[in-house]
Design brief:
About 80% of the residues lie in helices and about 0% in strands. It is mainly alpha-helical. Helix 1 crosses helix 3, helix 2 crosses helix 3 and helix 4 packs antiparallel against helix 5. The longest helix has about 40 residues.
Length: about 270
């Protein structure tokens, strides 16, 4: 019975992964015919900042064909993110308490919205500033002609950095809900949070003060927002923590028994050596 339960978890995980991958594939097929148009929108902040007569280039023969499709796939994945998070929630939901399920849905919605807000903030606010700064610092006689593949890698990195940074309120609420810390303790650590925000901005953005500051300040403000909302969150009680520990131990025993069942079946299928 335990082995069957373990197998059912694996089959459920496979089904969730296939559904998520299928959603991304469907969205990619829908976006592929518009790959060049999508990339043109992506390149608009840089094109607007380039001096007159300059343009983007491709240093690889296959770049003009493959790079827009790479962005179309990334675009499809970003659009499917709420559905992917839902599949993750549906997989872990059976192991959650009812009050945790009620909290999970708002967290999934808020994390998706904040992720998209981070991307939009990077595109409409950060990109025009940093690209104008980069192009204005070019030495006399140097033509700023960015490779389309390098540009794609650069902006996707910033999209991920700002999308992840905007998840700070969700992380703050989860820390308080799990009982790891309290709003009062977080308030006393505010100076360290601000310094940490600038360090994160330094590590996740290009080496210029503008993009670092434009990431650090939203992280700090979002931390304050998460701190405000966490004051209304009830930390997990000791009884709930003990129940979760028991569930974790039961899951570990189930996993060990499932692995043992696989090994037993494998040994039965292996023919004896001569």
């Amino acid at each position: 019975m335990q082995g069957a339960t373990f197998m059912s978890h694996l089959l459920e995980l496979r089904d969730r992964l296939m559904r998520g991958g299928g959603a991304v594939l469907v969205l990619f097929i829908a976006a592929a015919p518009f790959a060049n148009t999508l990339y043109e929108y992506l390149a608009m902040p840089l094109m607007a900042a380039l001096p007159e007569g300059n343009s983007m280039i491709s240093t690889e023969p296959h770049g003009p064909f493959f790079v827009p499709f790479k962005f179309a796939f990334a675009f499809a994945t970003a659009v499917a993110m709420p559905y992917l998070l839902y599949q993750l929630w549906a997989f872990v939901a059976p192991g959650l308490y009812e009050h945790e399920k009620r909290l999970t849905i708002p967290l999934l919605l808020s994390s998706s919205i904040l992720f998209y807000l981070g991307i939009l903030f990077a595109y409409f606010v950060v990109f025009p500033v940093i690209f104008a700064f980069f192009t204005s610092t070019a030495p006399e006689g140097v033509l700023v002609m960015t490779d389309i593949s390098a540009y794609l890698s650069f902006v996707l990195k910033l999209f991920f950095a700002f999308g992840l940074a905007f998840e700070v309120p969700v992380a703050t609420v989860l820390l308080v809900r799990m009982g790891i810390t309290t709003p009062a303790k977080l308030s006393t650590k505010r100076p360290y949070i601000i310094v940490g925000a600038f360090i994160v901005g330094m590590l996740m953005t290009p080496p210029d003060i503008f993009s670092q500051t434009m990431l650090a300040i939203p992280v700090w403000l979002l931390f304050e927002a998460g701190l405000y909302f966490s004051r209304s969150i009830k930390p997990r009680s000791k009884t709930e923590s003990e129940d979760h520990d028991e569930d974790d131990e039961a899951m570990e025993r189930e996993l060990e028994e499932g692995v043992a069942e696989f090994e037993r079946l494998d040994s039965q299928d292996t023919p004896p050596r001569a």
